[in-house]
């Protein structure tokens, strides 16, 4: 225990620093990202309470980027990704090539050499996926037009790191000929084979796996399986030569159509948040105070200069690719920083002797400072464009299956009939259910239904409850329904709740909870049944409708009275005819002394229902 005490202390310091700094910076409007970075700087270079294991902490924190890209992939259908192809391979490609070339040209004015200048220039052209996406998510801008432009650029940059790393052996001193001759077709085949394997697994293995786990009902196993899918896909792509983040993103895209994606997102999201926070803290921990002290003026000038050059290039590129002034400005001010992949690229370049370690440390400090300044530039972008009409309101495309106006919880028999009415009107809706078998059956009929529990706040968030205008709760069990209603009323008070009620008492309970609308599951079917029976007995259709409507009205009046005075109130409301059933016969004793049923109707006497109908007709 004594040997592990220092490790526990470091964990507590990191958690405590993240909690305090993240909360403080969020409260003053600078965002949690800058708070985590500040916590790392204080714990590491300033107070020196965490001295060892900084590199390991950073590597663990990079899993946060992996989880983040997986969740982003879950939110992107293949059709949506295809619709972004112009921004990804147009705007993204242009940004990397033009920014990298300009920065490399400027750096060649320094005594670095063309090889080092090229690596540094294109490395600095990459932006921080972790910082930018976190800022976009915190501000709710990821679904906006400028958010999608930013995401497209970041996605291409994640692709670009692969050829950049592959070029390092070519650019290494004396390594050009060896690298050119050493292109291995087997390695290329392995890379594409790994990609094909991931596609096949995502298409044919993962859904059946989660169906089996869902039927088992073990939630902790579902969480473990979600982590396994993300980490296995990331590791597979990493071994194939791609970035791990790209592997997790591809896995997410392949699961975007899955019925279990909301459950996956809810299970992964807490780990994403913790590990991303750890990543930002680790960036702060890794700062070398000696390098900053000796080259502080280079860093203070270099970081703003880098951001200015990148923003100045990206803004006109966005305009060329069809963005308006506001969107182009905000995109350029969200992506001006250096990125986490620069750490990887510069470390590998230093190891290949393209430049020495001191230059690498200086570049890391410049990139880190640019990251620290990014929340401020993003805030500046919001302020400069808040008066303008941003075309980036919510996109028409259903970004995460959560763009629907209606979220239905519980695909019971009641819910199935209600869903048919709603879908027949042309509306789109998202349906949650916790039965794997019901999801499988419903999927064959084209319903967009996902596995997840309405009792979990994070599942409701993932299913798009904040975008829904109405939540329809159609679960079977009254106690489950009540818990869902309480959760939604507490966490999402502005949403309209339409709820299926089990019986009259349950209706009163739901009314006390303030639902927008409730209806007993048997009310309308019973009224319809009674009305059809009257028509079969010879009643005119108009008269039947009048009777049914009168009963419906009296039932509603009685519910109002019962809500005010208790369940026993309102009995007088249902007494339009004080008819006494005939014959009123004392039951015969059964064989064991138990009461038996009433005697048979005397021969020739009409049924009671027929006689009542005739009396009613005569009265009319």
Q: How would you describe the overall organization of this protein?
A:
The protein has 620 residues and is mainly alpha-helical. It folds into four domains: 17-176 and 183-385, Up-down Bundle (Na+/H+ antiporter like fold); 406-521, NAD(P)-binding Rossmann-like Domain (Rossmann fold, 3-Layer(aba) Sandwich), CATH 3.40.50.720; 523-576; 580-620, no CATH class. The protein is built from 27 helices and six strands. The chain has helices spanning 5-27, 32-46, 54-74, 78-83, 85-107, 114-125, 129-138, 145-171, 176-181, 185-204, 206-216, 219-239, 244-254, 261-285, 289-294, 296-320, 325-334, 340-351, 357-385, 413-424, 436-444, 457-462, 478-491, 504-512, 523-536, 541-565, 608-619, and strands at residues 406-409, 429-433, 449-451, 470-473, 496-501, 517-520. Strands 3-2-1-4-5-6 form a six-stranded parallel beta sheet, with helices on both faces. The longest helix is centred in the middle third of the chain and has 29 residues, at 357-385. The relative contact order is 0.09. Residues 177-181, 389-403, 578-585, 589-601 and 616-620 have low confidence and may be disordered. Residues 570-620 are annotated as: Disordered. Keywords: Antiport, Ion transport, Membrane, Potassium, Potassium transport, Transmembrane, Transmembrane helix, Transport. It is found in: Endomembrane system.
